[in-house]
Design a protein that fits this description.
Layout (H helix, E strand, L loop, with lengths): L14 H12 L4 E3 L8 H9 L5 E2 L9 H5 L1 E3 L7 E4 L10 E7 L5 E7 H10 L7 E8 L5 H5 L5 H4 L6 E9 L3 E7 L4 E7 L1 E7 L1 H15 L15 H12 L11 E6 L4 E4 L4 E7 L4 E8 L6
Parallel strand pairs: 1-12
Antiparallel strand pairs: 2-13, 3-4, 5-6, 5-7, 7-8, 8-15, 9-14, 10-13, 10-15, 11-12, 11-14
Helix pairs in contact: 7-8
Length: 300
């Protein structure tokens, strides 16, 4: 039965029904939890995540046994999942060249290559409250010494799902808060947390495209890059991108905007090709991650 305003013939919005609808809508989670795969077998990963291009979490601590997790970081003696400093083991590779991002309290941002020793020294003397920050971001594993590459062997999950081709393996290390803006990658990737904590938010291709269009409209830009670039890391573009994903806004009528995953050391999330995502390092200590980007084509 429809209700009409007296003498108008126009639909009447019953305030009680409207209030109830708003209450139920606002109770929906803005960011839904990701599905956790039943096990970490290659078949489950391939059939439930990789082939259908569905984002998913691996069972907790699936990759806790990676040599890098055990050898690169100092776990806090009393605080679970907190790592206080990069392990001295890395100091022996201090001459290796890594990609660093420098950001200052005055919103200056610079990306450049530098010796690993420079970053390790900064980590040693910094805290989460340090204003001027360094972030080892998107350093290719191929640029590191063989001994360090051996500490991060490519998971069988990745090599057995597609053709086995690995397009890129990238490393991130820093002190929270760290931040990667909303973007999408050209290939699916397995993102593994090595130390500390990170929060990952994902949007499907359609929702992400709409969110990015709102950012473009806000900035008056017609063709902002959709991949992680320097322009995303500073100034007004960074502010608008961060507000779009992390500012606490609701989805349509309070519904879900996407998915969220909380990662601790050894945890992993699969991010399909074309899915938009933004990532924040949280907590105290050191946060570190690695990602393997694979071919989208299936093996014969």
């Amino acid at each position: 039965m429809k209700l009409y305003a007296t003498g108008s013939g126009m639909p009447f919005r019953n305030p009680l029904v409207f209030s109830l609808r708003r209450s139920l809508s606002s109770a929906l989670p803005t960011w839904r939890p990701l599905t956790v795969l039943p096990d970490s077998s290659p078949s489950s990963f391939r059939d439930l995540a990789f082939v259908p291009s569905t984002p998913a979490l691996l069972p907790p601590a699936t990759f806790k046994g990676l040599p890098a997790v055990q050898k690169w970081f100092y776990p806090h003696p009393s605080k679970a999942d907190q790592y206080d400093a990069v392990h001295d083991y890395l100091q022996s590779f201090g001459s290796a060249t890594v990609l660093l991002e420098y950001s200052s309290s005055t919103n200056k941002f610079v990306r450049s290559h530098a010796p690993l020793s420079l970053f390790l020294e900064w980590v040693k003397h910094s805290t989460s409250e340090t204003k001027d920050r360094l972030y080892l971001a998107q350093t290719s594993l191929e640029d590191l010494p063989q001994a360090l590459r051996s500490d991060l062997p490519t998971p069988t999950l990745v090599t057995s799902s597609g053709r086995g081709d690995i397009y890129a393996t990238n490393l991130w290390i820093g002190r929270p808060p760290t931040y990667t803006p909303l973007h999408r990658d050209p290939n699916p990737n397995l993102f593994v947390q090595l130390a500390g904590s990170k929060t990952v938010r994902l949007m499907d291709p359609s929702a992400g495209k709409s969110a990015f269009a709102r950012v473009q409209a806000s900035l008056g830009a017609a063709a902002l890059t959709k991949f992680r670039g320097e322009e995303m890391m500073q100034g007004r573009e960074r502010e608008v991108l961060e507000e779009e994903v992390w500012g606490g806004g609701d989805g349509v009528e309070g519904g879900s905007r996407g998915f969220e995953a909380q990662l601790q050391a050894g945890d992993a999330v699969f991010i399909p090709n074309g899915w938009w995502h933004s990532i924040k390092g949280t907590g105290e200590g050191v946060t570190a991650s690695v990602s393997w980007s694979a071919s989208t084509e299936l093996s014969k």
